[in-house]
Amino acid sequence: MTTSNITHFLPFLLLFAVLAVWINGSCAKVPDEDDHAAFLGAPICPSPDNSLYYRPVIGILTHPTDGAGGKLNKTSYIPASYVKFVESGGARVIPIIYDEHEDTITHKLELVNGVLFTGGFMTLPSYTNVAKKIFQTVLHKNEAGNHFPLYGMALGFEQLIHFVGKNPNIMEKIAAYDQASKLNFYTRDLGGTVFQSFPPELLNKMSTKCLAMHNSGVGISRERFEKNSTHLPSFFKVLTTSVDAKNKEFVSTAQAYNYPIVGFQWVPPKNAFEWGNRKIPRTEDAIRVTQQTANYFISEARKSKTKPDETEVLAHLIYNYQPVYTGKEGKGYDQVYFFP
């Protein structure tokens, strides 16, 4: 056969070759799951830790007023930054509306795996009473063997100090509004604390750079904290202190000895999720502080024995509400969930 003849038949030869490959492939056995597992080496992935709950839910207590001086005619709110903080750690949120019926609050506490008390600008006796009952419920759950964490931030931490210290006048005036500061580690023993998984280099940066955002006019000095000898020092371990604008030292992070309860006189969610205040630290390290703090909280919530009915959870999730953009004026919270 001449070269010209071969060239003439070349397209047909290529077509037959393609058809042969296609027919051979279509007749071949498609690997099933067993074949696939055998090829990769079963089991493909290790089983999760059955002692942990991987669908944790956090209850966030709403704060009195609408956060806008009553202009919006709402009775309570949750800054969306706290919701995002919880979600960034791998959990969902159920709002615990402070003025709803006591039975409803009790029911919601059976659907969550931990609780968060937010910061805020005012308190009412009704709010304080509900927060105290929730605090007592957290203690009872843990004493009964159900690991149940609580975070209190800024005003939330102040509430914890009041409840544990049994003194409504224990707080002192500090000048820490709109202030980023360093955290002075009061102890080197951070095992089992919120800071246990922080990389050493990040802990060092937290003690040398201003990575913690404060927004408080009251706090508690280390001296007053320690003089409350029958209550606070036996319940809380001081982890960090900070210094206000007038060089006054105050307790900035404390963690309970015998309960998964942590109090912050700073607000970790602000670094990553609030934009109205230009003094909030924005560096990559500041964002890592937010993330590490969220991760610890939710890792503690996964230890909870509460495994609620999913239908009940869905009925109460914060997804049933819509956040409102409130940050156009460049101050306050960027987004807020309002509750009638």
Could you outline the blueprint of secondary structure elements for this entry?
Blueprint: H1 3-27, H2 33-40, E1 57-61, E2 63-64, E3 76-79, H3 80-88, E4 92-96, H4 102-109, E5 115-117, H5 125-143, E6 150-153, H6 155-165, E7 172-181, E8 184-185, H7 200-208, E9 212-219, H8 222-227, H9 232-235, E10 236-243, E11 249-256, E12 261-264, H10 269-273, H11 284-301, H12 310-316, E13 324-325, E14 335-339
Parallel strand pairs: 1-4, 1-5, 5-6, 6-12
Antiparallel strand pairs: 2-3, 3-14, 7-9, 8-10, 10-11, 11-12, 13-14
InterPro entries: Class_I_gatase-like (IPR029062), Pept_C26_g-glut_hydrolase (IPR015527), Peptidase_C26 (IPR011697)
Organism: Dioscorea cayennensis subsp. rotundata (White Guinea yam)
Signal peptide: 1-28
**Count of individual beta strands:** 14
H and E string: HHEEEHEHEHEHEEHEHHEEEHHHEE
CATH architecture identity: 3-Layer(aba) Sandwich
**How many alpha or pi helices?**
12
Major sheet details: 8 strands, mixed
- What do the pLDDT scores average to? 88
Which structural class is indicated by helix and strand composition?
alpha/beta
Helical content (DSSP H or I, runs of 4+): 25-40%
Round the Cα radius of gyration to an integer and report it: 27 Å
Per the CATH scheme, the topology name is: Rossmann fold
Spatial order of the strands forming the largest sheet = 4-1-5-6-12-11-10-8
* Cα separation of the termini: 91 Å
Q: What proportion strand?
A: 15-25%
Tell me the domain tally. 1
Low-confidence stretches: 26-31
CATH homologous superfamily assignment: Class I glutamine amidotransferase (GATase) domain
Q: What is the CATH first-level class name?
A: Alpha Beta
InterPro entries: Class_I_gatase-like, Pept_C26_g-glut_hydrolase, Peptidase_C26
Signal peptide: 1-28
Family: Belongs to the peptidase C26 family.
Catalytic activity: (6S)-5,6,7,8-tetrahydrofolyl-(gamma-L-Glu)(n) + (n-1) H2O = (6S)-5,6,7,8-tetrahydrofolate + (n-1) L-glutamate
